[in-house]
Amino acid sequence: MLVAKFLPTAVLLVALATIAAARSMESRQHGAEKQDYQPGLEKDMIVKPIPYSPFYKPAGKLLGKVALITGGDSGIGWSVAIHYCLEGPDVAIACLPEEMEDAAGNSTPLSGRSAVKQMKRSDVVINTASIGAYRGSKGAADYSASEGAVVAFTRSLSSNLVEKGIRVNAVAPGPLWTPLIPGRYPQELFCQTLLTGVCLILAAFQTAENVAQYGMDAPMKRPGEICELGPAYVFLASFDSS
């Protein structure tokens, strides 16, 4: 009787929270903010990333599995870690504080190589790339190149492991609101020719106003939220995608 009595109230509270989160995601504004270090820190962000949406309904899709998440302390990895924990596996988080291009271009193959040694049939590798791997990014040639390397590595690793029954995929998101964005990174690169004829690459670092416009050129006129990526990783890790 007590459960029946309080159930309508609980359902109402969940519904209100869901509606509030949906409205927040669609209408909230990312203002002018900037951090003078890279990567940025979430604790110093004015507008915090949203790691989880109450729209998501866990269904035990990863019960009995073990997940190792690199970079699970912030950004996309943080959202993935939350969604995985809700789906029932044992989760381990590894944090690799490296430079952006090194983390993508070097640590992805190294992490993958170490993990594959412990894997068996029906296990899964999921890498994180970027849309920059396919269309490039003005002022971030090194980042785009490293993400292209992740895509190439993913395809090659998939070809090598498919006969062992191990699936390898990558998620390549567009603009997302993460601590990386307000951090200090070049908005534009330009070349200044010296008297010796050598081209010196200079960086024009972004301003807080540039950050406020981040993602506005996307079809939805906003950057994506990390909570919108977590379910994709759940799908790729589950038997639904086999």
Automatic annotation (TrEMBL):
Keywords: Oxidoreductase, Signal. GO terms for molecular function: oxidoreductase activity, acting on CH-OH group of donors. Residues 1-22 form the signal peptide. InterPro entries: NAD(P)-bd_dom_sf (IPR036291), SDR_fam (IPR002347). Belongs to the short-chain dehydrogenases/reductases (SDR) family. This is NAD(P)-binding protein. It comes from Ramazzottius varieornatus (Water bear). The gene is RvY_01413-1.
